[in-house]
C-alpha cells in the first residue's frame, strides 16, 4: 500500500489533501513562479509549468491519485501539467482579474471610437498601465497617459515656497469655516488677498483643497488631518502664482 510522503503531491479534493505537506510545498513553489507566469507568453508558460513539475520531482516527489481508496502514482504528463498550470492560473488575485476584464473592455471601446484616450479617468489610466506592466507581451495601439504617482505629487508640493509666519498663524478652524462651493477663481483671488494683507481668511476653496473626485458638495466636513493631507500650501501657492505672479515675501 502506497503512503504519501512529505514530498508527494496528491490529486483530489478535501482539507486533508489540501493540507498534505507535499501539496503545501507544491503551492509554495508555484507562488515563487506566479508573477513570471502571469507575464509570460504561451511558450514561456509551458516552460514554467515544466520547471514547477521538475521542482517536485527533484526532491523525490511523486504525483499520486487515489483509485479504489488506494493511492497510486500517475505518470500522465498531460494530467500533471494541467495541475501545475491550473495552480499557477488560480493565483490571479481579484484585482488582477478585474483589471484584465476592464482592460479588454476599454480596449474594445477605444478601438470602436466610443471613447477617446484623453477622456479616460485617472483610475482607468492607472489600471491600463498596471495591466500592461504585468503583461509585457500584451500591446495596445493606444497611448498610456502619464499620471504622477504619490512620490511625484509630494515632491511637487515640497517645491512650493515657505509662506511665512502669517500663514502659519491662521487657525485651521477659521480656514475650515466656509462650506459653500463658490467659484474657484473668486475663492483663489480672495484667499490670496487675505493672506497678502495678513488677515485671517473666513473661508477656503474646498474644491481646490480636496481632490475633485472626492469632492462631494457644500456640506463636506474637513478635519485638521484632512487639511494637512490636501496640503493648503499648494493651494495658497497656486493662488499667489495665478493672481500675483509670484510669492509674497
UniProtKB/TrEMBL annotation:
Pfam families in alphabetical order: DUF6824
DUF6824 domain residues: 8-90
Top-level taxon in the UniProt lineage: Eukaryota
Protein name (record): DUF6824 domain-containing protein
Originating organism: Amphora coffeiformis
Lineage: Eukaryota, Sar, Stramenopiles, Ochrophyta, Bacillariophyta
Amino acid at each position: 500500500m502506497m503512503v504519501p510522503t512529505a514530498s508527494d503531491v496528491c490529486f483530489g479534493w478535501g482539507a486533508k489533501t489540501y493540507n498534505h505537506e507535499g501539496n503545501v510545498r507544491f503551492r509554495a513553489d508555484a507562488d515563487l513562479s506566479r508573477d513570471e507566469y502571469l507575464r509570460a507568453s504561451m511558450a514561456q508558460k509551458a516552460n514554467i509549468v515544466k520547471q514547477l513539475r521538475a521542482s517536485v520531482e527533484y526532491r523525490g516527489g511523486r504525483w499520486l491519485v487515489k483509485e479504489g481508496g488506494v493511492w497510486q502514482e500517475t505518470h500522465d504528463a498531460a494530467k500533471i501539467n494541467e495541475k501545475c498550470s491550473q495552480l499557477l492560473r488560480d493565483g490571479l488575485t481579484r484585482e488582477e482579474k478585474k483589471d484584465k476584464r476592464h482592460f479588454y473592455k476599454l480596449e474594445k471601446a477605444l478601438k470602436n471610437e466610443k471613447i477617446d484616450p484623453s477622456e479616460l479617468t485617472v483610475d482607468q489610466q492607472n489600471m491600463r498601465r498596471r495591466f500592461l506592466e504585468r503583461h509585457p507581451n500584451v500591446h495596445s495601439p493606444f497611448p498610456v497617459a502619464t499620471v504622477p504617482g504619490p512620490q511625484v505629487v509630494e515632491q511637487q508640493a515640497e517645491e512650493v515656497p515657505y509662506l511665512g509666519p502669517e500663514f502659519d498663524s491662521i487657525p485651521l478652524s477659521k480656514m475650515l469655516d466656509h462650506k459653500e462651493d463658490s467659484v474657484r477663481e473668486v475663492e483663489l483671488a480672495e484667499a490670496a488677498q487675505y493672506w497678502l494683507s495678513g488677515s485671517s481668511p473666513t473661508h477656503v476653496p474646498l474644491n481646490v483643497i480636496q481632490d475633485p473626485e472626492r469632492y462631494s458638495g457644500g456640506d463636506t466636513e474637513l478635519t485638521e488631518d484632512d487639511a494637512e493631507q490636501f496640503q493648503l500650501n499648494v493651494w495658497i501657492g497656486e493662488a499667489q502664482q495665478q493672481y500675483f505672479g509670484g510669492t509674497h515675501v
